[in-house]
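$ run holo --ligand "manganese (II) ion" --emit tokens
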Amino acid sequence: MTRVIHTGDTHIGYQQYHVPERRQDFLAAFRAVVRDAIDDDVAAVVHAGDLFHDRRPTLSDIMGTLDILEELAAADIPFLAVVGNHEAKRDAQWLDLYASLGLATRLGDEPTVVGETAFYGLDFVPRSKRDDLDYDFAPHDADYAALVTHGLFQPFDYGDWEASEVLSESSVDFDALLLGDNHKPGKQAVEDAWVTYCGSTERASASEREDRGYNIVSFDDDVQITRRGLETREFVFVDVELDAAEGLERVRSQVGQYDLTDAVVIVSIDGDGEPIAPASIEEYALDHGALVARVTDHRELTADERETSVSFADPDDAVAERVRELGLSGAARDIDETVRASKVADANVAETVEDRVRELVEDDPDALDGAGSPAGDGDTATPDAEVTAANAETDGGDTDEESTAADPETDAAAADPETDTAGGSEDQSLEEFL
Ligand SMILES: [Mn+2]
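-- output --
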């Protein structure tokens, strides 16, 4: 029997909502997983990509991660990992740095055998490169085999690649696909194998409402996958449906029913009622101890936008999907975020953006190139719906999310396939954002 932790989408370095506490949270979640692995004495920690939120993590995030991996190594538990779309660099990967220090194994087409199981890896593959894959994995003589990879696979939501294709094309018979990229956990049986997402370990978007955690995978006669939860930052979701005569007081009293201490408070207003300044709710939440508060007033949408936007269960999901299609570079999203950041006063936005662009281009002349697959080809959402999703975000969306891609100028500059002159996309395969 071989029992491992399957985790991924850790997104270390993500300073969500522009607060340092959130940045710490993402690192802390990784530490919690590793400590569980040590307490539980599992055979390995298998990481399915997006250890880092972007391909240029800060030194403190690199060091923090190093500390955690050292703890794991001291307990003699191997860390087996692949590279996700967020963190992928052109040539060497951060993972190689940890591997060179003996703290990680970068999985590939040769088996890494732990206990009775052979683990293989496939880094995130942009859509444009998938036809070139040979699915040629070296043989093994272990009892079980698992492939670890990062991408959006059918039969799960947003899947743009069939898990069954990977399983049937591969030269090795896999008992399990251990996946990252979709932050929502799940498992399904496909072609006699288990295909499973472990989910993210901290909420990288307000659409990730469910509790966070990771998978425990046991290879023993058959493959068994169970979930274990993680203690993460409290998120308080308040959805208020207002009647015609209701307004601010009603929303406040709804929000006031929760313990907001140190929480991220996400308020969503719908229905009728009086106009409400989101800032007044946000202030109220902060006064009651919230770390961050964000208010989305869906009533601001026009009738047309409402009609189309109902095709999405959650505007965050729709925007996330759209951003993936756009293939915005990390730099473009970074600038977009600066423009929307509540902490940058409007008067300073132009200067801040100019500084940021200069920094980015000095650092990497290709920083503003789009990433990979051109928008729109063969995708599921209709163009109308995409546009509406973007508008919805502009009008009332959770504008602090990294996924806000609604600014038309940003879109045009970053999404135009012609600007992608790099000839490939693995250098910044930030197809994003799941
Ligand atoms: Mn991710």
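-- notes --
The pocket of manganese (II) ion is lined by residues 9, 11, 50, 84, 86, 181, 183, 434 (CB under 6 Å).
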